[in-house]
Amino acid sequence: MKKAKPSEMRAEYRRSDFSKVERGKYARRAKANSNVVVLEPTVSAAFPNSAAVNEALQSLVDVAQRIRRPTTKPRKAGASLRPKRARS
Hints:
Elements: H1 27-32, H2 41-45, H3 50-66
């Protein structure tokens, strides 16, 4: 297929049809309403479709919320910050 030169337009188009065109008019809205996540190939191969990925991730979130606990044990009042030494 022969490509037209950039300065040429097909006969069915009129330059006046393009006077109101705004580049990227909806780009900000599209970016705000989308959340694209790129998976590693090995992870992608484990799931047949996006619904399966979403189901697995939702299950993981549910489990994490059920078992959420503090990362450190609370100290007893008056306990020293230094570890106890063994007596000799």
